[in-house]
């Protein structure tokens, strides 16, 4: 009879996950993302053209929510300052925290969740490469946007040039705005909290992605379509995750199998050559295939002077005082 499984049940991972292998992997992926985001800067004029084109599309579709939000954040510091902290800090804190939570309490689901996040991040890097985009805050002032990160820079740890730490604004690519991975990563966190968290976590699962979307527009760091593109990138990454997992599993199984036969054959051959032969009775044949015929003696071998069953007593009782005792 075919075995049925309960809906939603998942098989345990074939190999046990270790934090000392997961942490370097995540650090490596983020380092590649940061380096690629920094190196692929693009042309400034092209980035400005792409930003203005997005703004024109939004106005045509009546989706231009950036201007009213940015005016609100600029006029009300009690909204703008927390929003800048949100934009500059939370993606560094919440995303790793959700990863650690999944690793510790949802190990069965962690691998797929981690692969989804990493795949989408690399897709976002492709978007930065192909479509460098000037964010609203870097457009000419005539377009009506105010850089709240610069306006409230005295309140936070970031500098006036970017959301990077003070003095490090030149070490970031400020034209990597399309897609918004702030929104993409927040959406990933929301999905994880909604699917695997408690009832209270479901509230955060809705508030965090929605709040991030409002923040990235109100601080003039992204257009609304940037946020839409960030969500779309996460959707494509989700669709590609099963393929990436299968490919990684094939590589994990084929690489050891390719090198294992050569390593196993050499010890087996040497063991066969050095192991003593075993006859049919199960006794070891230490002659290595060289046997003596009946009646054949080794050189200088004495003739046996005792008949069968008449071997000398190893400890004779009639031995004299001068007779050496048998070795024990």
Describe this structure in words.
The protein has helices at 19-39, 44-60, 66-75, 77-105, 107-130, 148-151, 181-196, 199-218, 224-274, and strands spanning 277-278, 284-285. 27% of the residues are buried. Helix 4 packs across helix 8 (199-218) and helix 7 (181-196) packs antiparallel against helix 8 (199-218). With 328 residues, the protein is mostly helical. A hairpin with a 5-residue loop joins strand 1 and strand 2 (284-285). The two termini are 69 Å apart. The longest helix has 51 residues, at 224-274.
Amount of beta strand: under 5%
Please give the share of residues in helix: 55-70%
Main sheet overview: 2 strands, antiparallel
* Order of neighbouring strands in the sheet with most strands: 1-2
Radius of gyration from CA coordinates: 37 Å
- Poorly predicted regions are 1-13, 273-278, 315-328
Sketch the topology as an H/E string, one letter per element: HHHHHHHHHEE
Category from helices, strands and their pairing: mainly alpha
Q: Look at the structure and give the mean pLDDT.
A: 76
Number of helices: 9
The total strand number stands at: 2
Keywords:
globular; 2 strands; two-stranded antiparallel sheet; single chain; 328 residues; mainly alpha; disordered N terminus
Put the structure in a nutshell.
This protein has nine helices and two strands. The protein is mainly alpha-helical and 328 residues long.
What's the SSE blueprint?
Blueprint: H1 19-39, H2 44-60, H3 66-75, H4 77-105, H5 107-130, H6 148-151, H7 181-196, H8 199-218, H9 224-274, E1 277-278, E2 284-285
Helix pairs in contact: 1-5, 3-4, 4-5, 4-7, 4-8, 5-7, 5-9, 7-8, 7-9
């Amino acid at each position: 009879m075919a075995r049925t499984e309960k809906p939603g049940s998942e098989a345990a991972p074939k190999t046990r996950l270790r934090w000392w292998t997961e942490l370097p992997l995540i650090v490596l992926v983020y380092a590649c993302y940061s380096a690629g985001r920094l190196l692929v800067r693009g042309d400034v004029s092209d980035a400005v053209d792409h930003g203005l084109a997005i703004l024109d599309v939004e106005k045509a579709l009546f989706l231009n929510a950036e201007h009213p939000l940015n005016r609100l954040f600029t006029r009300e510091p009690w909204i703008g300052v927390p929003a800048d902290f949100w934009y500059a800090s939370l993606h560094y804190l919440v995303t790793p925290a959700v990863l650690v939570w999944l690793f510790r309490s949802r190990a069965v689901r962690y691998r797929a969740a981690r692969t989804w996040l990493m795949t989408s991040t690399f897709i976002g890097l492709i978007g930065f490469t192909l479509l460098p985009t000037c964010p609203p805050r870097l457009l000419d002032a005539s377009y009506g946007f105010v850089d709240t990160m610069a306006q409230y820079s005295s309140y936070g740890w970031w500098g006036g040039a970017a959301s990077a730490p003070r003095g490090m604004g030149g070490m970031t690519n400020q034209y990597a705005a399309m897609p918004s991975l702030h929104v993409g990563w927040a959406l990933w966190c929301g999905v994880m909290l909604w699917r695997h968290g408690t009832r209270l976590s479901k509230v955060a699962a809705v508030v965090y992605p929605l709040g991030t979307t409002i923040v990235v527009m109100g601080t003039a760091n992204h257009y609304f379509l940037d946020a839409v593109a960030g969500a779309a990138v996460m959707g494509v990454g989700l669709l590609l995750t099963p393929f990436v997992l299968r490919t990684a599993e094939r590589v994990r199984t084929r690489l050891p199998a390719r090198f294992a036969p050569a390593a196993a054959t050499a010890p087996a051959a040497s063991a066969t050559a050095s192991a003593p032969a075993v006859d049919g009775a199960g006794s070891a044949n230490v002659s290595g295939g060289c046997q003596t015929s009946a009646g054949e003696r080794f050189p200088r071998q004495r003739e046996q002077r005792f008949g069968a069953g008449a071997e000398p007593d190893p400890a004779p009782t009639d031995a004299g005082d001068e007779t050496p005792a048998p070795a024990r």
